[in-house]
Amino acid sequence: MTATATRPATDPAAPVTAGTGFLTSLRVFSVRSLKKSFRDGESMLMAILLPVLLMLIFTFIMGGAIDVGGGGGREAYLAYVMPAVVLTAAGFGASYTAVVVSQDVATGFMNRLRTMPFPSVTVLLGHTVSSMARNLIATAVVFLVGFAVGFRTEATVGQLLAAVGLILLWILAITVIFALLGLVAGSPESANGYGFILLFLPYVSSGFAPVDTMPGWLQPFAEHQPMTPVIDAARALMNGQDPGADPWVAVAWCLGFMAIAIWLIAVVFPRKTAR
Amino acid sequence: MPYTTPLVDIDGLSQSFGDRRVLRDLRVSLPPGIHALLGPNGAGKTTLINILSTLIRPDAGRARVLGLDVHADRARLRRKIALTGQYAAVDEALSGMENLDMMGQLFGLSRSAARRRGGLLLDQFGLTASKSAKVSTYSGGMRRKLDIAVSLIAEPELIFLDEPTTGLDTRSRQALWDEIHRLADHGTSVFLTTQYLDEAEALAEQILVLDDGRIVAEGTADELKELVGGATIQLHDGSGHLRAEHATDGSAADVSRTLAELAAQYPDLAVTVRKPSMDEVFLQLTGQPTEGAAS
Ligand SMILES: Nc1ncnc2c1ncn2[C@@H]1O[C@H](COP(=O)(O)OP(=O)(O)O)[C@@H](O)[C@H]1O
Ligand SMILES: [Mg+2]
């Protein structure tokens, strides 16, 4: 203890703790969440290994077999499949957010924060920052492996940045959704289960095979599900083609998801207490 | 300087979850100091702590802590209190020092002040040797100590401790009790919950007995014992066998009169006065034994 003198506990003149604002708590929680992810060796390994393995599988095993037009062959498929690999790996990386958020609820950590003098919702933003960092690494890994196994493009830097920007916006949207799922999940284990949904969603999109090669009953879903415009737009941009209206459809989906998830978080978060 | 504001002032406080009434019309006023809320599992202890620490807004009634309304004045109240919940809420992936540093900064300390004070607390709680180790390597007792240290980082006026020693071994338990006494010496008030009678008796000035959402008794350990019944006078023969037992109403006059009568009646038996144990008090007040019987 420091040498504070004994004082009556309800002395109105007693010093109070200052508390802290939005930016400081955001910084503190970002540092915390980044430390947590980088120290969790298993999840870091998966964040790097999963995109590497997916790239190798889709390039060397499937690449020769799936005809996506454009001259066919391995190189054409590589140029086709890269955005879908990023989104698949990102789905995995973002789903970790649900696990850490639900751990914070289950351990009572969130309870303690909510009795403290600062905007406690910044704890969720800290987890979001670290999810973006993990997925940025996964995205970089996909591009590095892509270049290493023969991906070449005539896209301008502006187009490449736009493609990456769209991908990051999608990752941000699903991270916010996973943060919400982490808040409402009964336990970290069940929060972990939600990750599987997003692991399968990209296979039912235009990501790995053209939609018109799918069974008729599946086509309407694959064509209109939100990942398809994101993937189509990112693919067109990174291959230096005109994406048409896809980027705007993609942005609309992402912002729509975020708006709904943030609104639900605003409803759930203040009432969430650990049992 | 005498205090004028009660530490905790509750009037007509009720809380329900669905149609389950968890707290029923509580009315209590406590001065600064150490107070224990004693009750069995499911009595509503955590719910009351959650209300007083601004986590949940009560459905009915008024609750003021340090003179501040737990809902209307929650922003100000949060600068004066700290909650240590039922389960240790420290970050397993961080070290002891990193936990203190993080929470200190969130309470508004500068980074250097947080680390300096964190170092003092680690020292005080005997955790200095493990300050750089990840909390996931800590024992249950060490985690609990760190958990309480985190609550103390910004020198709150009042700290809430929800079942601080549940699940700890006897040695860690005694060590924590010592720390809690030390807090009081420094002028920090403590509101703790416990299922253990001996814990309430050892720590608290005032004990509130909570049963099924109602405060069934309130007072010092001695007052509670008196409430339940007076001392019992026992008569043993030379080999220590209990030969006779006489109840009194607990007043000094009654005890001494009964003692004199018995001594005249049984000159060859040894006479002893026995106060009821806290377990008996609890059993009588709530109609059920607690796990606190083990001490
Ligand atoms: N958020 C909640 N929703 C529904 N029931 C609850 C909730 N919190 C507590 N309860 C119920 O209220 C009662 C009292 O719980 P609690 O305050 O945790 O008791 P204690 O801490 O004394 O064991 C229990 O029956 C518990 O199941
Ligand atoms: Mg409890």
From TrEMBL, chain A:
Residues 42-272 form the ABC transmembrane type-2 domain. It holds the Pfam family ABC2_membrane. It comes from the Bacteria. InterPro entries: ABC2_TM, ABC2_TM_bact-type, ABC_2_transport, Nod_factor_ABC_transporter. The chain crosses the membrane at residues 44-66, 78-101, 122-148, 160-184, 191-211, 248-269. It is a multi-pass membrane protein. It is found in: Cell membrane; Membrane. Keywords: Antibiotic resistance, Cell membrane, Membrane, Transmembrane, Transmembrane helix, Transport. Belongs to the ABC-2 integral membrane protein family. This is Transport permease protein. It comes from Citricoccus zhacaiensis. The lineage of its organism: Bacteria, Bacillati, Actinomycetota, Actinomycetes, Micrococcales.
